[in-house]
Amino acid sequence: MASTSPAAPVAKEKFHAYPWWSPRFWHGMPLGVWHDLIAEHRYRASPSRWGLVGTITAATAFNSLAEPLATARFRRQLRNPPPTAAPLFIIGHWRSGTTLLHEMLMLDERFCCPTTYQCFAPGHFLLTESLVTSALSWIMPSKRPMDDVSAGWHRPQEDEFALANMGAPSPYRRMAFPVTSSDRPEALDLKTLSEEERTLWKATMRRFLGILAVRDPRRPVLKSPPHTARMAVLAEMFPGARFLHVVRDPFVVFPSTMRLWRSLHQSQALQVDPGDRLEGYVFAAFDEMYAAFERDRALLPPGSLHEVRYEDLVADPVGRLRAAYEALELGDFERVLPEFEEKARSMKRYRTNTYHHDPRIVREIESRWRPFIDRYRYEVPELESASHA
Asked: pLDDT (tens digit, 9 = 90+) per residue, 197-220?
């Protein structure tokens, strides 16, 4: 049961600057998807975000013109996309190390992944990617707003953004309207959707991967925290799929996830979010995600799932990746060993954010997430210590 005590005041946090002219996730939607999203929330954008609504509407109109042109130009290839190996899915809760794993695996030239531009313009990147990313390289911030991780048009990105931009049900739609959205995640566990919605989600996923295969037919590596709650559906859709699950100390993950959503609401939302409901949402999303994960784990074929603790990964990146390659049969590890070793050396320079434990939050995590704590051998922290995320 969630704590009913009021949330502690949140100190004003500093995030990397995200100028008004920088691209927002919603800029990648076609006009129809964008209209459905804002109509669902009765056009209730905050007055300070009305200018952003205008620029997004203009961008979505462009997308609606560019998408049919791209479809016509690549009609033959899109009708019969190149065959690809079943995807490797990197899964885990937000702020658990999924981005680190994604970027490391992209050092292996046998894999491909969707880029930021491809996820922000999924309907027409085949036609526009080279031109737009060259012309608009200056508008992309060098860092993500929530941490010190580099950003850029060509860096690996979550396919969840592409799915939401294409009109699939997604929990990321809440990011636009955090004030008028539900307190519980929507479309995180696909089993909560209607049959019609689930069919739409599957069709959108297949369509996006087909477009991606036209651009690059190598085996796709897809990183998306929401997929943690979707393993059974994904395994059924893509026989031979593999799942690499990363976990992290939940007493670090919680405050880091709170920071993540605050930064995204600051940079992406069309409503000014006071944040008074965010704590409950983060707890609810974790609960739903890992209930679905544990349900689906037993349904996977043997050898489909491998797990790694973030703490072990950063302590021994090369060794943990070697174990993952062997367990999931990802190919000859020695072929990419030098690249992994170089990446491991560069990781020593990465600096994490620092948080102090809130005793109320520690008690809540200990109560609600005890099975996770025990399964992955984490310890309840001493309240005087600091945590890093």
From this structure: 999 999 999 999 999 999 999 999
